[in-house]
Queue: 3 jobs
Job 1
Amino acid sequence: MTNYFNEMMENGAVRAPYAHLQGWVDQMPAELRNLKQAEAEALFRRIGITFAVYGEGGDPDRLIPFDMFPRVFSGQEWSRLERGIKQRARALNAFLADVYDRGEIVRAGRLPAKLVYLNEAYEKAVAGIRPPKGVYSHIVGIDLVRTGPDDFFVLEDNCRTPSGVSYMLENREIMMRMFPELFAQNSIQPVEAYPEILRRTLASVAPEKCDSEPNVVILTPGHFNSAYYEHSFLADMMGVELVEGQDLFVEGEFVWMRTTEGPRKVDVIYRRIDDAFLDPLCFRPDSMLGVPGLMDVYRSGGVSICSAPGAGVADDKAVYTFVPEMVRFYLGEEPILQNVPTWQCARGDECKYVLENLGELVVKEVHGSGGYGMLVGPKSTKEQIEAFRAKIEADPDNYIAQPTLALSTVPSFVEEGVAPRHVDLRPYCLVGERIELVPGGLTRVALREGSLVVNSSQGGGVKDTWVLAE
Amino acid sequence: MKLTVEHVTTYVYDQPVRGVVQSHRLLPTQCQNQSVERWNVTVSDGMMGGSFRDGAGDQVQAWTVTGPVERIEVRVTGVVTTTDCAGVLRGNRELIPPVAWLGETGPTMPDSGLKALAAGASGETALPLAHDLSARVSEAIAYTPGATDAHTTAAEALEQGQGVCQDHAHALIACARLRALPARYVSGYLFTDSDGTGHEAAHAWAEIWIEGLGWVGFDPANACCPDERYIRLGCGADAAAAAPIRGIARGPGSERMEIAVAIASAQQ
C-alpha cells in the first residue's frame, strides 16, 4: 500500500497552512454543505463556465465538478515553487530563442539535433526572426505533482496556449462569494490581478513598429471551440477585443481590425489558435480561421503573436526530458523543480530496466497524447503487460517510461463527508518584459476514491488554490 | 554571364475582389553565384508590406492590394551577373541547419516506387550518390508539359513516368531524404538558348546537402547541375513553400493567372 502525502494531515496533526480549515469543516453541518454545493453549482451555471478544461473535449454543456475544499500552500512553500517555475519559464524561453537562432545547445551536443529540427512543432518559417524582448512563450503553464512536503515534480510544460486559467479566477470568485469568513480568517494572497498582469505582459511585447499605446486582441477560433468561454472571459477581464480571423486583415505593413469606426491597427495578438491555422499563406492553405499575410507582418516586426509561432518545440514530450539540461546550459543554475524520472526505451540499458519492471511503471508513446497507447503497470493485468512488452520490443524508440507517482492528496467533499483525494497543479507563469506569477493556479482533483487520474473527462474536478501570505 | 530578366505575372479575377495579399520570393539570392546589377519588382496598385530575410537566407517581401480590383500585374525586371560555381551554392547566409531539411512534406512523401528508386542508387560518398539519384530521377520521369499539375505529388509523377521540373525536383528531394541526405526545393530562372531545347524559363530544381561542400544544386529536368545559366530566387521544403509568389485574394469568384518570362543574355 503506497503511502500518499496528505497535504492537510501529517502524523495525525493538521499542517499549519490548513489550521483554520479544520474548524471550518467541523462546524459545517451536512445540510449546509449540500446547500453550499448546490449554490456553487448554480453560480457556475449562471457564469456559463462548463466542461472543457485543457481542451480535453467531452460534453461541452456538462459542468466540471467544483470541490469547495480549498488546497492551501504556505507562503514559504510557494516561494520555492515560484522560483522553480520562473526558472523553468526562463529556460524554456532561452531554449526557443536559441533553436530559432544558432542552436548552441545542439552544437554543444547537449540535445540531439533531430529531436529539435525534425520535430513537428519546429517552424522553419520563424528561424532567424527574433520576437520582441526575445520572448516566445508568454504564458507558460507548468503541470506539477507533489509527492511529499518538499517534493514537487514537473509532469509537463505547456508553452503554446495553456488553458484553464479562467477556472483559477472563477473558483476564487465563487469561494469568496460563498465563504467570505474564510477570507477574513486566512490571509490569502489574491489572484484577481491575473488579467491585468496578462494584459501588461502582452503590451510589453508590442512590436518595434508600434509607436503608441499597444492595441492587444485575443484571436479565437470561434464559439464552437471548447475553450471559447475562456477566450471571451479573458477578453472581458482584460478589457480587450475578442476577434476571429475574419475580423482581421493585412494591409501594407500592419494587421488591422475592422471596427464600426473604420480599421484599427492591431499590435499584439494573443492567439488561441494553433500555428497551422494562423496564416493560410504560410501554413495550411485551407485554413479559414487565420489571417492571410499575418506571418509576413509578424516576421517583419509589424505585429506580435503570443505565443510565438513555433513555441511548441519546447513542450514536446521527448524534449521535456532535456529541460533540466536547459536550465543548466542557459542559466548556469541547478534546476529547482525536478522532472519525473524518465527512462528512454531508445537507450538499450534503460529499455532493459523498463522491460524488467513493467508492473510498476507507466509507459507512454513518445508522441502520443490524451492517454492513448499508454500502460499503467500497477493497474494492468498480466496479459496487458505482456502485450505491451511485445509492442516495446518491436519499436523501443517510440516509448518512454516513468514511475507511478504517489500524487499527494487534499481533503475533498465527497458523498460520505470529507476524504483525501489526489491532486495536481497548473500555475500560469507570465513572461514579457518581466516574469510574473500570480500566487495560485488551477488544482485538479481526482474525485473518485483511489483514482490518480485528475482529467475532467475521467471524473476530475477543480478546487480553489490558496497561497497564504508569509 | 550577364542575364536580363523580364517576368510578368498577371492575375485576372472574374469579379472584382476586395483585396489581395501576396508574399514574394522574387529577389535573387545574395550569394557568390550571382550578383544583382539592377532589380525591380512592381505590383499594380500595390502597397508594399514588410520585408525580411528568412532562416534560409531568402529575402521575402510582402505586398497588399486594396480592392475592389479585377486585375493585378506583378512585374519583375532586372539584370544579374552569374558565375558558374559547379552547382555549389556559395556564400548564402542561412540559419536553418541542414538536418531540418530531412523532414517530409505532402508532395515529397515517399511511396514504394520512390523507395525503390532511391534504394537502387549507389555512390560511395554523398556526392556521387546524389548525382546517381538525380540521373535516376531524370531517367524515370520524362519531361512532358501538361502531364501533371501544381498538386501532383512526387509519387504520382514517378508512377506515370511523366512530369515537369516541379515533379523532377520533388522526386529527387524525396529520394535524397530517403538516403538521409537533406534536400530542398529551389525556385528561380533558367536561361535557355533559342534552339528550342530548353525548358520553361521560370524554373525549379533541387539542392542536396553534401557534407564538406554545402548545398549543391541538381536539376534532374535538364540532367545537369545549375551553372551560370541559372538565377536562384529562394528555397523551401517543397514547391509551395518555395513559390516565388504566394497570394490570396479576398472575395468570391475565380482567378486566372498568366505568366510570361523572358530571360536573355545581355552580352549578345
Note: Residues 341-403 of chain A form a domain with the Dna Ligase; domain 1 fold (CATH 3.30.1490.270).
Job 2
Amino acid sequence: MTRGMKLLPLCGLLALCLLLAGCHGTAGRQALSIPETFDETRPIELTFWAKNDTNRTQVDIYEKAIADFQALYPSVTVNMRLYTDYGRIYNDVITNIATGTTPNVCITYPDHIATYLTGSNVVAELDSLMADPNYGLGGSRLKFDGPDREEIVDQFLSECRLDGRTCALPFMRSTEACYVNKTLVEALGFELPETLTWDFVWEVSEAAAEKDADGVFRANGQKVMIPFIYKSTDNMMIQMLKQKGAGYSAPGGEILIFNDETRALLLDIAEHVKKGAFSTFKISSYPANFLNAGQCVFAVDSTAGATWMGSDAPLSDIPADQFVAFETAVYPVPQFDPEHPQMISQGPSMCIFNKEDPQEVLASWLFMQYLLTNDVQIAYAGTEGYVPVTVKAQNDPAYQDYLSRAGEDTGAHYDVKIKASRLLLEHTADTFVTPVFNGSTSLRDAAGQMIENVTKSIRRKQTVDDAYIDKLYADMISLYRLNMNGGQEVSGSARADLGPLPKTAVILLAALAAAWVLIGLYVLKQAAARKKHRKIT
Amino acid sequence: MKKIMTLVLAVVMALSLFACASADDVTVMTHDEYVAAEMDTEVTVETYVQAHQSWWNDQITVYAQSEDGAYFFYNMACSQEDAEKLVPGTKIRVTGFKSEWSGEVEIVDATFEIIEDAEPWIAEATDVTGLLGTEELIDHQNEFVAFKGATVESYKYSKGDETVDTEAAFAYGWDASGAEGTDADLYFSVNVNGETYTFTVEYYLCNETTEVYEAVRSLNVGDVIDLEGFLYWYNGVNPHITAVAPAAE
C-alpha cells in the first residue's frame, strides 16, 4: 500500500523550472489554428493520461470509451497511460513540457493547469474550439451526440477558466461528505440534526471519546475509537475559512490565510484533539477503515470515496471480520451557518496540450468531447459518488433511473454511494472553488499542514498557544515558499520568528563573546603599556 | 595578566565543550525500550539501514534493523546528498516520534545522523514461514524475513461480497487498476500451509528496474517460490517483497 501522495508537494521547484523553460521558448508553440475539416485519411495517434481512483471499473470505462471513439474515428488511435495519483501526472507533465513530449489529452486539476500555463501556448485554449460550428460543442460535423455549451453545468465549467480563458473542461465532479455512524450517534443519546454543524460534531465526538476505567470506549466497547477523522485537512481548513467568511487567498495570488480566524480555528481544533475527539488520515489512517470497524462516528472523505464507506461497503481494506453493522448517514461537511451551507467543489478536469499539427489537436479535442457524452459520463459517475458534469447526462432517464434505485444492491446501486452523488446534485449551488494561480497548490498544502501539525503537537503533549501559532505561520511561509512566489504577498501578522535560541547555543555564544571582550582588553592593555614604555625611554 | 588570560580562555574552552556535549546528550534506546515506549513520544535509536524507498521532496522512507529488532522510518527528513549515503549496512542514529498507522508501528517526523566510524551490518533474513497466521508474527514486524516453499495462486481481490479472480499470477495495484509503465505496486497471492496470503512489491522500494519486479511479473500460477522482504503491516501483515526465486529443493 502506497501511502499518501508523495509527488504532490513539488510545486515550487518544478514551477520554477517550468517558468525558466517557458521563458526561453523551448516549450513555446504557435497558438492553435482550427482546421476547417478533420482529415480522416491519415492516421493520428493520441496519448491520453488518465487517472482512476484505484478502481478497475473506471479503467474499464476508459477502455470502452476509447474503443467506441476509435470505432467512430478509425483513423485515430488513443493510447492510454493509467495513473492513480494526480501528483504523479502533474510531475510527469512538467517533465514532458520541458522536452516537448506532453500527452495530447490529460486528466488533471485546475491548480495544476495554472502551472502548465506558465509555458507559452503549452495548453490549448478551448474557447475557440468550443465555439467552432463544425467541431465545437454540439458541432454539426461531430459523429457523436455530445453536449452543447449550455449543457455543461455552468458552475463546473467556470472552474476551468483561468485568466479569462477556458483552459480545461470538467470531467467529473465531487465534493466532500461526512459519513456518519448514525447508530452510534443515537446510542450516545443524540439525534442527528437536519444540517450537521461543527458544534454538533465536536459535542458528539467528545462524548464518544469517553473511556471506562479499563480504557475501553463506552461508545463502542472497543479499545480503539477516533470519533472524528478528516481525510483531507487542506479541504477542512479551506471550507472552515470559507464558511467563516475569513481570508484564504485572492484571485491575484495574494495569500490571506495567516489571519486571526485561522489562528482561532487551529486553537479550537487543538482543544478537541486534547479530548481525544479528532484525528486525521495522515496521522491515523483512512477514515473508512475506522468507520467500518465501528471505531469512528464522523468520517469526512470525498464523495468519490463513497464505495469504501459503511457496513456494506463494496470496497474495503479491512478484513471482513472487523466490520460492524450500523446505519450510515451521508451529510454535507459540517457547517458554521446551517442556513448557508458551503462546501468545496472538486474532481477531475481535462486539458489538451498544443501540438505542431493542428489535426492532432483537433483529434484530441474530439476525443475530449467524447468523454462528455452521456454514455461515458453516466457510467463513470456511477463508479463512485461523482456526478456527471453535463445537465444532459444528469437529466438522462438512464441516470435518473440509477439514482432512483439507491439501496437495491450493494454494488452498482450501493445506497451510500448514490446518497453521496445526490448530496452534490442538491448542493451544486453551495459549492465553491479557491482561486487558482501559480503557487495555489503550495498554499493548499500549507492549509492542511497547519491542522496536521497542531494535531500532532497536542498528541505529543506539546503546548499549542499563540506563540506556537506564530511560529507555525512562519514555518509554513518558509517551507512552502509562500512569500517568494512572484508578486504574492503575505498578509497578516506572521513574522519570521524562529523562537528562542537553545540554551547550549546561548552558553556557547556568551563564552565566545566573553573571550573576544577579554582579548580586546588584553590588546588595549598591551598597547597602553608600550606607549608608557616609549614615554619613559 | 597573561595568567589571567590563560585562565579565562581555559574556562571559555571548557564552557564551549560543555555546550557541545549538552547538544549531543541524548538517550539511545534499545529495541525493547523502543517497543515499550508510549505512542507519540520522542524516541532515539541507533540502527542499520537495510533498504529505503525512493528519495523525494527532502524525505526518505527507510527499513532498518539492528541485532535486537527492526524499525520503519516513514518520510524521514533527508537531503538528496544524504540519501545517497544511506546504503545498506550504514549505521544511523534516528530521533523522531513513535507512531502507528494501520497497524504499522513506525517512527515519523524523524531526523538522522550517520555514525561514520561504525562497522556496517546487514541482517540475515529470518525464516518466518511457520509463523504466518500466528500471533507471534507481529513480534518480527519490520524485520527482513524469508518465506519458503510458497505456491503462487491466481490473484484474487474482494469487491463487496464478490471475489474477483484475475486469473493471473499478479496484478498492477490491489484491484488490477494499475498498468505497466506507471508507479503501480505489484500484488500477488501465495499459498502457504493451506492458507492464502497477499504480498506486495512496493514500487517506491523496488520499481521496474529491479530483479524482483521483473521476477514477479514472470510468475506463473502454480510456481513454488521462496521469498524475502520486509515485514510491513497494513491492517494485517503485508510484506514488502524484495526477492523472489524458485524454491530451493
Note: The mean pLDDT of chain B is 92.
Job 3
Amino acid sequence: MNKKKFVSLLLSCVFACALLVGCSGNGDDNNGKLELLVDMHGYMPTLNTEPTAESPTVILSTRLIEEAFEEANQDIDVTWARSKPVGGLEAEVSQWFVTQIAGDNCPAIAFSWGTQYQDRDYYVDLTKYYEEPNEYVEGNEHWSDLFESYLFETSTIRDMKGQLVGVPITLYAGPPTGWYYNTELISEDQVPKNWEEFVTLAKQLNEDPDITAVAPWSYFKKISLDNWIMQYTIGPAVAGYIMDQTDYDKDGVTSTTEQLRAMKAGLYNPTVHPYAKEVYKQAKRYFTELLRDGWMNTDYTPMWNNGQVAMYEEGLWALYTQENNTAREFDYGVFPAPLMDKNTSEYAIDIEYTENGPYQPKGDMILNIMKPAVEGNPELEAAAVKFLKFLTTPDNISMIAEEMGSVLGAVKGSTYNSVLDDWLDQSFPIVPETNWPLAFNSDQNDRLNRLFGEWVLGAHEDDAFFAQVNTIQQAGADAYIEALDIDTSGWN
Amino acid sequence: MKLKKTLIVVLAIVLVFGAFAVFDTVRASTFHIEVVSVSPEKPVADVRQQVEIKLRVTHGGKAVEGHSLYAVVSGGGNFKGNRTETDADGIATLTYVPYSETMLRPAGPVTISVIDESNSIFLEINTKLEFVIELQPKE
C-alpha cells in the first residue's frame, strides 16, 4: 500500500470513529446508562458552583436535584442541553428546536413556554401520567393532586386538543410585569388601581417638564398593539366584557379555540361593535396621551436612576436588579398593571381584587416531554416522566423557587423567597381568563401592528382603520385554523 | 533602533501599570472591613427569615462614607441586594435570605465574601472580607 493510500485509510478510520462517538445523543450513552437530555432553560445549573463578583449568579438547586436523581436511578445519566440560546428571542429558540430535532439531539424534557409549538406536534400527552401517583411524594393518589387544579385549564398546560402537555415548575408571582415607581414622586395612596387612575396620574406628573411620568419597557420601541398595556390592562378588560359570549363551553376560560370561533362569528369586529372600537381607542391613548416625545429613542435607565421617571415598566424578574441598583438614590415600589374598568368605559368589567397576593398565578417555568426525542423509545419517555415527578416534590420545587427569587413554586406546599414579601403583600386585580386577540398568525400580527402604528400617527381615518383590522384578523384566524387543521363544523 | 524604542515604550507602560498595582495593593491593605453585627446571631435555614448584616469600613481607623460594598454568598441563600453603600459612620447593611433546609440541602455553613469596590485609585484591587454564618436546623 503506498503512503497516500495508507494516510487516506487512516483518516477515514479516524473520522468514522469520531462519527460514532459524536452521535451519542439522547437515550444512547456509551457507559450503558440511559442518557436523559434535559433543557430547563434559565434554570439549568451554572457551570460555576462558587459565586464571584464577576459571576455572582450561581444556580445550584437543579444540580443538587440532578445528582440526587442519578444517585437514586443509577441507570440514568442526566445531561443538560447547554447549547440552547437561553437568553435569546423566541425566534432563536424556535430555530434551535428545529436544528436539534434535525440532528437527532432534541432534549427529552424541554421548556418552550408551555404550548408554544403545539402546531408542530412537539409534545407528549401527559394526561395519563398525571393520573398516576407521584411516588416521590407521600400520600398522593394522582400526580395532578400536587398542583392547583386551575393550572390544568390554562392554555400553557392544556393544548388546543385538550391534552395536558405541560408540567409547571414555577409560577409567576402574580402578573409577570409591573410598574416600578419612584416613591418620592408617587405616594402609596396615589398608586393607581385602574387604567383611568393611571392615565390621570400620568398626565398630572407630565405637567412637570422635568419628570417623565411613564417609561415603557426598554424593548418596546415602536407603536404597536404587542405591548403589556394591551396584554394586561386593556385587552382582558374588554374581552371580559364579552366573555359570556366567547366562553362557549362555560368553563370560565376563553380558550384560543374559542377566540378563533368568536373571531369567525364577528364578535371582535370593530366595524360592527363599539366595544371592539374601544380597545383600539384606549390602546391609542397610551401612545398619544402618556408618552413623552422622543420616547422611542430614549434610554430611560439613567433618567430613572436620577429620579426623573415616575413609573417604569419592567418585568418582575428585574426585582433583584433594582435591589442592587446603587445608582438609584430613592426608594421604589412596584404595583401590578392596573386593569381598565367602568371608570374608563361602559365596555369594561368591574374589577374585583384579592385581599392580598395574586389571583391564580400562571405557570412560568413549564416543562414538556418532547415527542421528537422519545417517540419510539418508551424507556426514555419513562425516564423523563420519572425525572419530572422527582423534580416536582415540594422540597425540590421550593429549592428552585427560593433560588430563582422572583417566582412562586408550582407545587402545593412549596415556599418562595422572602424578597417577594412586599410585592405579594398588596391586593391584585382578579383578571378574567380571557384576552383580546391580535391576529393569531405572525405575518398577520405584523400587518396589524404596522396598521395600528400608522393609525396612531394619523395616516388612516377611524373607519378605514377598523375595516382593515377586521380584514387582517379574519385572515389571521383563517390561516391559524388551516395550520392547526381545526374542525370548525358546528361553529356559529 | 525602532525595535529598541518600541521595547522602551512597552517597558515604560509595564512599569507604570506595575506602579499602579503596587500603589493600589498597598492602599487596599489600609482599608478594613469588619462585621459589626449579624442579626439574628444564629439564623435558621429558613427562607422566611431574613438576616441583617451590618459591616463597617474604616481607613486608618476612621469611618469611611460612600464606599460601595459588593457581597456574594457561597453555600446557599441569596442577598436581597448584593450591593450597598456605607453611611457617615462607615456602616453598610446587607440583608441575607437563607435557604430552607431540605434533605438535599441540610442546614450548614455559608460563606459571605465582601469586597470594597471603592478603595482603589488606578486599578481595581479590592479590600476583601470573608466570614462564615452557621445556619441552624429548623426546630
Note: Chain B has one domain: 2-134.
